[in-house]
Amino acid sequence: MLLVALLVAPVLPAQAPATPRSYERFAVVCQSREAAAAGAAVLARGGNAVDAAVATAFAMAVTYPAAGNIGGGGFLVLFAPAREEGGAVVAETLTTFDFRERAPARAHPRMFLDEKGEYDATRHHWSHLAVGVPGTVAGLGLAHSRHGRLPWQELLAPAVKLAREGFPVSAGLAESIVEVIDDLRPAPSARRQFTREGRRPLRPGELLVQPELADTIERIANHGAREFYTGRTAELLVREMERGGGWITAADLVGYRAVERPAIVGTYRDVTVASMGPPSSGGIALVEMLNILETFDLRESGPGSAATVHLMAEAMRRAFADRARFVGDVDFVDVPIERLTSKSHAAELARSISTRRASSSSPTTFTWPPESDETTHISIVDGDGMAVSLTTTLEQSFGARIVVPGAGFLLNNQMGDFNGAPGLTTDTGLIGTPPNLAGPGKRMISSMTPTILLRDSGSGRRLAAVVGSPGGRTIINSVLGVVIQFVDFGRNIQEAVDAPRVHHQWLPDVVWLERGFSPDTRRLLRELGHDVRLRDGPQGSVMAIAPDPESGRLRIGRDRRRPGSAAAGR
Predict the structure, then answer these.
(1) pLDDT category, 84, cuts 50, 70, 90?
(2) Predicted confidence band at 1 (pLDDT cuts at 50, 70, 90)?
(3) DSSP label of 442
(4) How far is CA 475 from the centre of its chain?
(5) Which of 549, 400, 553, 541 is nearest to 8 (CA)?
(6) Distance CA 249, CA 240 (A)
(7) Comparing C-alpha atoms, which of 229, 163, 566 is closest to residue 376?
(8) Are the beta carbons of 499 and 14 closer than 8 angstroms?
(9) In this structure, what are the phi and psi dihedrals at residue 384, rounded to the nearest 5 degrees?
(10) Dihedral sign, Cα of residue 492, residue 497, residue 500, residue 503
């Protein structure tokens, strides 16, 4: 029997029971019930984790328009343990796929300045200039071509059906539609997709039917991933760019390629940490922070204590400063990955941390005195132990809020992840450092941190956990918190996901805490010199899977901070 679970929970997940649901053979966890079911059905038919990732991701492009997409991009981390097959030993696989959006050929570092030479946030984030060349379809196609098992067309069939026949709108989806409906473009065609006959937003329980999106996904299913970049879909996208003054051309689409890259690999305590490399900053920053924290005894200071949060914030501060200073697209920038992820660099940074006083961040210096938002994540483990950690995004909720007429899909506003302009670094969080300035064909920096944890066993490395989250720059720190809860404090994966989170990103110089930390912890952090602020809402939405060390059953960690988190498996 195929099991599907849906969980809606309060903003304070620690109040809910933290006993993880588990499955014996395979599991999918994501932010959409229908998409989780689509991925699990693929696994039940003999597909592997990559097949399930393709089916789940395309289904989410239909059921979770705030972040699921074919008009955006993302990253995939893949692990398959060594195994015997036909009497021969097949080596372990550990690799990543980069399908981050790229800047069009006309892009340049000062493209987000207005005619007076002043920074224009609307141009940067909410115009057709904010749209990067989409990568999701190419990335899923590349991963499937190298590691998939079932036919491509079969994997996209559930998404086509969901789009053509419709599915009931959840309360969370209805709320997100209400929030953006007045901003969707071009009107009125975009409004028709998410309203009842163009008049009012769809309500919970009503069917969301998307025939144009169904036609688009069916074309991609029948003609392959390149249809998005060279076929009818590409024509419709370019037509919308020309209508709205965007810079993406047919040549930009034809030239787009996803890239397979080596994983960023580090160690923390007794686990190996494998995550995403540039243009994502997630893997570098995560490994750097873990290396710094490894020099301290977090078990002694304890979970949720001011001492532990202080050390986490100081590690975050330093890693995010390095992120701004060094990290960009490795096809354009010489990123010192080996040094940034080294134990020696971390030890040097750790020595600059005082346990008695907070550091301070400044936009004018990267030295230390001696003393990001709408993304979605899918975690999958199949019956052979293959694991996929997949994070995709449109950037903001519903991306640029532009629906391609005739194609039915939303476009990203990922160009907003490039730095605004040369030298534009402020204490409010704008960054203007050189590595991440816009340029022709360049991929913008990302915070996405799809991560896989491994442990050594007698027969080679085996999966310890699959983790990932949405949340802009908070993604890295949300994943960090779960890893620390899981490894240092021995929490089961649901407890680790439920634990309250902390965030610091160098600039602005603020420690953000979720509700759940004690008043004493907040007071002590302020006494240490931190500017401590409470979040009104949740940080991230982590989706995780961790095999039980004894039984091998796949324990699920579903984030209950947002409505609609779902798991499916058998």
Answers:
(1) confident
(2) very low
(3) P
(4) 7
(5) 541
(6) 10
(7) 566
(8) yes
(9) -100, 5
(10) positive
Q: Scanning the structure block, which residue is given the tokens 């249809």? A: 227
Question: Which position among 56, 233, 375, 433 bears the catalytic label?
Answer: 375
Burial class (CB in 10 A: 0-12, 13-18, 19+), 362: middle
Rounded CA-CA distance 275/281 in Å is: 10
User: Residue 34 is encoded by which pair of tokens?
Assistant: 């229908």
For 392-415, what is the mean pLDDT? Answer: 96
DSSP letter, residue 280 = B
- How many beta carbons lie within 10 A of that of residue 139, not counting itself? 28
Count of alpha carbons within 13 angstroms of residue 253, beta-carbon side: 24
Q: From the centroid of its chain, how far is CA 63?
A: 17
Please give the mean pLDDT across all residues of the chain.
93
Rounded distance between C-alpha atoms, residue 192 and residue 372, angstroms: 31
Q: Are 173 and 35 in contact (CB under 8 A)?
A: no
Closest CA to 137 of 67, 74, 193, 63: 74
- CA separation, residue 432 to residues 35, 119, 151, 282, 435 (Å): 38, 11, 45, 19, 9
Beta strands of 345-487 (E only): which ranges?
374-381, 387-395, 451-457, 460-468
pLDDT at 371: 34
Lateral strand order in the sheet of 532-534: 502-503, 511-513, 532-534
Q: Are 361 and 509 a contacting pair, CB within 8 Å?
A: yes
The Cα 550–Cα 569 span in angstroms is: 19
CA dist 530 → 90, 319, 354, 363, 510 (Å): 51, 17, 13, 17, 7
CB of 233 closer than 8 Å to CB of 61: no
**Cβ contact 71:411 at 8 Å:** yes
pLDDT digits (tens, 9 = 90+) for 168-208: 999 999 999 999 999 999 988 788 899 998 889 999 999 99
The tokens of 346 are what?
């971390």
Assess contact for 479 and 493: CB atoms under 8 A. no
3-state secondary structure of 351: helix
CA dist., res. 20 & res. 26, Å (int): 15
375 is catalytic: yes
Burial 116-129 (b: 16+ CB within 10 A, else e): eeebbeebbbbbbb
Residue 288 pLDDT > 70: yes
Rounded CA-CA distance 156/407 in Å is 16
Residues in the chain: 570
- Say which residue the tokens 């990543």 belong to: 96
Instruction: Assess contact for 82 and 89: CB atoms under 8 A.
Output: yes
Residues 6+ apart with CB under 8 A from 199: none
- β-bridge partners, 543: 468, 558
Scan for tokens 């027969």, then name that residue: 459
Q: How many CB atoms lie within 10 A of CB 96?
A: 25
Answer whether 553's CB lies under 8 Å from 463's CB: no
d(CA 117, CA 115): 5
Per-residue DSSP letter, 167? E
Q: What angle do CA 384, 389, 391 make, to 5 degrees?
A: 155
- d(Cα 493, Cα 26) in Å, to the nearest integer? 16
Distance, CA of 348 to CA of 142 (rounded, Å): 39
Burial of 467 (0-12, 13-18, 19+ CB in 10 A): buried
